[in-house]
Every structure is written in structure tokens, then in C-alpha cells.
Amino acid sequence: MIQPLLIKGGRIIDPSQGIDHSGNILIKDGTIAWLLRDEGQETCLPEHCLVLDAHRLVVCPGFIDLHCHLREPGFEEKETIATGTEAAARGGFTTVCCMPNTNPPIDNKAVVDYVKDKARKRGIIRVLPIGCISKGRRGEELAEMGELAQAGVVAYSDDSDPVRDSRLMRHALEYSRNFGLPIIDHCEDTTLTEDGVMNEGWVATRLGLRGMPTIAEEIMVARDIALAELTKGRLHIAHVSTRGSVELIRRAKEKGVAITAEVTPHHLTLTEERVMGNEAAPQPLSLLSYDTNAKVKPPLRTRREIEALILGLKEGVIDAIATDHAPHTEVDKRCEFGLAAFGISGLETALGALMGLVHSGELDLPLLISKLTIEPARIIGKEIGTLRMGAPGDVTIFDPEAEWVVDPKAFASKGKNTPLAGRILKGRVMATVCGGKIVFQDKHLRLEKSHDIKERVRE
Ligand code: DOR
């Protein structure tokens, strides 16, 4: 039995109910029992509950990550379900959807069962597997989509690879309608990105590296939209990174195509200059250097693309923020740029990085929270991402003003591959509660028993 938990005195922001006020929340039997506006009086304390003091902190529904790589089974040297879910809890996430580019890939019931079983035994938050679109992720024939749906996948994707074959994509969109699940595509025309390792532009030219043009993404987004319109299937575009993609998605939504989209914290906050090292202090020409931790697919782009992505979020063209947490080993990254693996370890820095956009006035806080909670919940059709009475007791508590220095060595994730090492971020997760259980708690957070508080008041 989990002890009831009272979260007291925080700024409660729940975009699913349009709530933004101070108050108290009681979680009992793993679900939200009540949420009350704090009118200044002392809340009457229920007997035998834990009390978490959230004054000056933001209290919101637990974050949901639509897109992360937990690497298990098959790549346990990069991450496991145990380390990945611990990293997620530290980042404020209570649900993560894990991508199927594992070994074996999640393309049949046995692998879905394996992931779910591991998550139950070793995971500390909710893990929802995504199944493959194609058998073995080979892009040749459809995976057993019905079997995967029955086994409990929440979407289909061949992520890290696009679905190159248009006929296969058409059939995937058609067939997925039977199960009401979205097809998530990694949009990349590989004939245009072949051998590319970063954004096509002046930095690639200066470093002598092969570029990946924005059009490579946009061509696939346009094709997928055309197929979604034809088939009436549900399409979700992963990690949108270009202005042109935002425009295509905007027009598709206006036409009524069943399309949603996500953007990552790194595409919203970092530019291609980061590949050269610290963007705040670029190297002089004589000291050309690079940082493989900034090598990611799609690549970090330009300020112009970032502005369009932020506007896309604000206008509802982009529905959700997803981390694309892609942990890699040191060996995968400590090598020449062309040989390094693509990917950024993002679960533990997501909130801090995104809060930078709130502090600079580019995004407002309730909007940011909606993109991490109710919006991703809608995409996967789950009754989470809300603090409504009776919903699962998933809550994230963070200090919007706390500054901290990113130290990858201190990550719970095995993936230390972050381009933010040494950066000061403002915004820090203080506690994460999943199904009423505290799965992460900062050492500075005060947690007391209601009984002890009552005794103290009596004295
Ligand atoms: O940078 C990336 N890394 N992009 C992807 O699409 C896949 C991911 C990975 O699995 O490492």
C-alpha cells in the first residue's frame, strides 16, 4: 500500500483543466483524490499521509515523452529500461514511449511482452512500447500490426530510419486505421542526406563536413501528408526540425488531414554552430574543432528554423515536445565526427533547456507544460497528462528559478552524450510522482509525515 501524499502550497498548472493557481493536491490509492485552491488558510491535514512542501514550486501533471530510446533489448551498454526510466524520473517524466530500434526490434508480440515485463520489474515509471512499421525495420514488408496492437503498442514507427518505400507507407497508414494508432515517421529522404553528418550550411562548409539539407526532411513530410490525406490514416511527424516542415504541417492541418507533430528540446534551443563546440564562444578559424555530442538526426539547424519551430508550437501546428533521448556509449561518440553515432541524451536536461525559452519570454509556461502533458497524452489516446480527480497520480514538481550546472557524469542515464555539459540551466525537477509513488526526490525537498506536523502545531 502506498501512503497518501499531500502536495502542499505549489503553483498548480494543469492545462487539461485550464488551471493555474496555488493550491494543494492529495494523491490516494495511486490516483488524484482532490485538488483544492489554496485560499490562504491551513489545509486540514488528512491522517497518516506524507506531506510535500511545494511552496515556490510548480506542480503539474507528470511529463509524457512520446519519443525516447531505452535500447533494451540488445544495446544494454548504451541504456537499459532500469537506467532509462531512472533518468526519465529525474527529468520529471512519468510516462515514456520507447522506440523499437532495439535488437531484436519490437516487431512482434514476444518483444513487446519482453519490454513490458522488464518495465514492470525494473522500470520506475510507465513505459509504453512503440512497435515497428516494417518487419525487422527493413522497410520491405509490414510488421504484424494487429498482433502488435493487441500486445499493447501505442504507435508504429521505424524511427532512426524513414519509411522509404511509398507503397509500404501507404499500406501502413491504411492498415493502422483498424487499430486507431498513429504511424510515426522519421522524415528523411536518404538520397539527399547520404553521408551527411550535420546541417547543410556554412558551418558544414567551414568544417569540411557533408551536409544534410532541410529539403530532405520536407520532401518526406510532403509525401507522408499526401498519403495520410489519401488513406485517412493517422500520421505523426517525429522530430520536426525545419521551417518548411512546419509550413507543410500547418497547411495539412488546415485541410483537415489527421496529422500531429513533435519537436525536441535540442531542435528548439541549439543551432548548427554548436557542432563547432561552445556556441557562446566559437573557435577562431585556426582552431577548427567539433563536438560529436552535437551530432544528431535530424541535425541541429539555424536560428531561422528555431523561430519557426517556436511559432509552430505556439500556434498549435506542433502538438508536443518529445526528447528523442538517444543514449550512446563513450566509444560511440569519442571518435572522428563522421564515424560518431547520431543522438543526444536528453531526458535529464529537457526541462532545464526548455525553461530557457520561458525565461527569455519566447514560450509561456502553461503552454510549455501542455506540450509535455495533455498534448502527448491525446496523441496516444491515454487518460494521463492531467490532474483531474481519478486520473493516475502522476505529478511533476519543479523549481522554475533553480540554477544548476549540467554534469553528464551525474546522469542516471548511461548516455553521457550531451552537448550541454557545463552549461548552467535554470529550472530543475524537484520531485516526480508516478501512480502516487515518489520515484524521484531532490535532496533539498522537504517531505514530512502529517502526524509530525500536527504534533509540532500542538506544541
Ligand atoms: O540522432 C538520432 N539518434 N536520431 C534518430 O532518429 C535515432 C537516434 C538513435 O537511435 O540513436
Concise description?
Helices cover 30% and strands 22% of the residues. It is an alpha/beta fold and 459 residues long.
Describe the structure.
The chain is of the alpha/beta class and 459 residues long. It has a single domain, classed as Alpha-Beta Barrel (TIM Barrel), CATH 3.20.20. It contains 15 helices and 19 strands. It has helices at residues 81-90, 109-122, 145-151, 166-176, 190-193, 202-207, 214-231, 243-255, 265-269, 303-314, 330-333, 350-359, 365-372, 374-380, 450-458; strands spanning 5-14, 19-28, 31-37, 50-53, 58-61, 63-68, 93-98, 126-129, 156-157, 183-185, 198-199, 211-212, 235-237, 259-263, 320-321, 395-405, 424-434, 437-441, 447-449. The longest helix has 18 residues, at 214-231. The mean pLDDT is 95. (4S)-2,6-dioxohexahydropyrimidine-4-carboxylic acid (DOR) is lined by residues 69, 101, 159-160, 186, 296-297, 326, 342-343.
The count of β-strands is 19
Instruction: Name the CATH superfamily assignment.
Output: Metal-dependent hydrolases
Largest sheet properties: 9 strands, mixed
- Any guess at the CATH architecture? Alpha-Beta Barrel
What name does the CATH topology carry? TIM Barrel
Bin the strand percentage.
15-25%
Q: Helical stretch count?
A: 15
CATH class: Alpha Beta
Give the end-to-end Cα distance, rounded to a whole number of Å.
31 Å
Overall number of structural domains: 1
Portion of residues within helices: 25-40%
Structural class per helix/strand content?
Answer: alpha/beta
The set of bound ligands, ions and cofactors reads: (4S)-2,6-dioxohexahydropyrimidine-4-carboxylic acid
The parts where pLDDT drops under 50 for at least 5 residues are none
Shape: globular
Radius of gyration equals 22 Å
Q: Give the averaged pLDDT, no decimals.
A: 95
